[in-house]
Amino acid sequence: MRNDILSNINNPRQLETLYWTNKSTFKADFNSLYPQLQDNPLAEGWYQRLNYTPEESFWGTPSERLFMIGASLVAALMAQLPRLLSLDKDYFYTRNIGFIVFPLLIAYFAWKNKISRTTGAWLVGLTLLAAGFINFIHTGKSGDTLILSCIHLPLWLWSLLGFTFGGGKFKGGVNWLGFLRYNGELAVVTALLLISGGLTTALTINLFGLSGWHIEQFYFDNVVVCGLAAVPIVATFLTQAQPALVNKVAPVIANLFSPVALVMLVVYLGATLFSGKNPFNDREFLLIYNALLVGVMALIFFSVAEATPTSKKPAQLLVLLLLSAVTVLVNGIALSAVLFRISEWGLTPNRAAVLGANVLMLLHLLYVGIRLFGAVTRKSELSLVGQSMAFFLPIYSVWSAVVAFLFPLLFGFK
After folding, report:
1. Which residue among 135, 175, 332, 380 has its CA within the 20 to 30 Å range from the CA of 192?
2. CA–CA dist 385, 368 (Å, integer)
3. Residues 161 and 256 in one domain
4. pLDDT tens for each residue of 111-168
5. 57 within domain boundaries
6. Which among 395, 399, 410, 321 is positioned nearest to 355, based on CA atoms?
7. Is 384 domain-assigned?
């Protein structure tokens, strides 16, 4: 390869071909030839490319490692509060599950992005407001509005995390598309950590069991609970410290499962026609419809969030367009079922919340579908699809706040 490099040193395209043919041989031969090629600007560029190493270590900077360890310990301690303070576990976890992790992740990105003290004070105040609302205003109350608040508060905290991830600045806009990418990568790393943790747990418990020690309850209370609380923090650290390890996995998974989801959704819609069930009269069936809707929407969003103008082939874009079209159909069925139930049995907090969510998702899917159609027909850029996804995220944040904070007041905590 040495002779090929020398004869093509001024031919960038041919050098690129040689490099991708055999990277290790190309690097070794090029470095041995470099002393006689130092006066060539193109050779200098290739030398820097081949021998560049990141300044930061694999495990991030010392301050990042220290922050990750400290935040993981705090999350583990918060997860143990019911046992340490003799609190009711169901009461604590249903209301505070989001406060175990999200404030720490918000603090991590606030520190990493060096947000202003004023913005930081606002984030602390809003988080404390949410914690006080769910733990004190709702004290002694039960009902649908409490359940809705418990479901939507983590979503609202998630939106605060997105705001902080994007730099904590309204001026210039928040990088919501980058936040979606982070969520896709976080899901992949979290799944890997959970699988590893599950295997370790099974191995540990069975090894102790062979010795006559039954540590299941102790291990779950002291190790599993703490580990689950720390997993999102460790996963976030890994996505930020070594993005090259995970930023190619999420789009591969999305590309693999998008056509599978399309086929599954079409088959599922066909099967419902012959099942004798429908979401108009079957409440559980309607819940399944909405859960399916959220999952497919997430798949579409992560697929586009990971895309670049050259990474998506026309066939992949067509699959996403068809998937969004079928999802619009599913959303339309779910929305009509909610309207039917409201007209028949009246407005309740649950129906109002589902109605608002379905309307928002339908509008969002239509907007994304229009942009996808433009990208497929080459009438608009793929980047506009990403912008259409990011545009609605602040609206979801507002809606989650309305359901979490205003619905209990509007419906009298029923």
Report:
1. 175
2. 6
3. no
4. 998 898 999 999 999 999 999 999 888 666 678 888 999 999 999 999 999 999 988 7
5. no
6. 399
7. yes
The band of 224, judged by pLDDT with boundaries at 50, 70 and 90, is: very high
Which of 229, 224, 234 lies closest to 198 in space, CA to CA?
224
Question: Within a domain: residue 56?
Answer: no
Do 235 and 277 belong to one domain? no
Query: Are 76 and 230 contacting, i.e. CB atoms less than 8 angstroms apart?
Result: yes
The domain tally of the chain equals 3
> pTM of the predicted model, to two decimals?
0.81
Please indicate, yes or no, whether residues 348 and 290 belong to a single structural domain of this protein: yes
Residue closest to 176 by CA, chosen among 166, 164, 168, 161: 166
Share of the chain above pLDDT 70, in %: 91
Q: Which domain holds residue 200?
A: 62-244
Q: Are residues 180 and 214 in the same domain?
A: yes
CB distance 148 to 407 below 8 Å:
yes
Residues 299 and 389 occupy one common structural domain = yes
Q: Does residue 398 fall inside a structural domain?
A: yes
Q: How far is CA 394 from CA 21, 38, 400, in A?
A: 46, 52, 10
